[in-house]
Amino acid sequence: MSTYWDQAPGYWGHIGPPLRPSASDIGFITDFVSQWRRRDLRVLILGVTQEYQRIEWPEATVLCAADREKAMIQKLWLGDPDRAYEADWRSLPVDPNTQDIVLCDGGLTVVDYPDSVDQIAQELYRVLSPGGYAIFRVFLPSPATMTPASVVDDLKCGRIGDLNILKIRLWQALQANPHQGVRLADVWDEVRSGVDDFDDLATRIGWQVERFDALELYRNCEDIYRLLTVDEVVSVFCKAGRFELQGVKVPSYPLGESCPSIAFRSEKPS
Ligand SMILES: C[S@@+](CC[C@H](N)C(=O)[O-])C[C@H]1O[C@@H](n2cnc3c(N)ncnc32)[C@H](O)[C@@H]1O
Question: Is 68 in the pocket of ligand 1 (CB under 6 A)?
Answer without folding.
Answer: yes
